[in-house]
Every structure is written in C-alpha cells, then in structure tokens.
C-alpha cells in the first residue's frame, strides 16, 4: 500500500502503522456494509418507481394514434418518458438482450423485468 493511500490513516493513529492498517480495514468493512445497504435500497426504489410509472403510463394517450399506452412503460413509453429517458431505455434493452444471449444463446427477447434490471 502506498504512503499517500495510508497517509490519512497514519495521521489519524498518530503514526502507528498497526493501528493505521486496522483503521483502514475497518473503513473497508464499513464501506462494504454501506454498499450492501445501498444495493438493497436501489432495488427497492427501482421496483417502487416501476409500479408507479406503470400505473401512470397506462393513463397516457398517444397523441399521434389516439390510443392509450400500455402499462409497460419500458416497452411502450409515453412521450414524456421517452423525452425524459432519452436513450436510457434503448440502452437498457440492448444490455438486457446481451445478458439474455450470454445466458442462453438464441433465447427469448428481453421483457420488462429484464430491461428494468438493466436500468
């Protein structure tokens, strides 16, 4: 480990290398715990947003065709979602397609859960 990397830990421990390494390890452990919680939060938030966007999208009318959009906001996004998301939905669909091909070449087309997982 380089001195610039360990420096703040040495400063915090009054130059004690053993304590600095312990503090560094504690920081690694704490960071891992934060990322674990962040991961769970991100999945829960994404799923909650999906539920709300599905309900909202189904109430939107396509002005060019006069038909209502499907609840599946990823496969049939209303104009506002298309405008806000830009290329993100298309890129997520491409990533889902690639992931499905890696898992099972020649398999099915990506569905809503596959694309949602890639956002």
Structural commentary:
The chain has 119 residues and is an all-alpha fold. The chain has a domain at 58-119. The protein has helices spanning 3-12, 17-57, 79-85, 88-103, 112-118.
Characteristics of this structure?
119 residues, mainly alpha, 68% helix
Please write out the topology:
Elements: H1 3-12, H2 17-57, H3 79-85, H4 88-103, H5 112-118
Helix pairs in contact: 1-2, 4-5
Number of strands: 0
| Overall SS class | mainly alpha
Radius of gyration: 23 Å
Percent in helix: 55-70%
Helix count from the secondary structure assignment = 5
What is the end-to-end distance? 35 Å
| Beta fraction | under 5%
- Low-confidence stretches are none
How do the SSEs run, as a string of H and E?
HHHHH
Largest sheet: none
Overall geometry comes to elongated
Mean pLDDT, as a whole number?
A: 95
Describe what is shown at a glance:
By secondary structure, the protein is mainly alpha-helical. The chain has five helices and no strands.
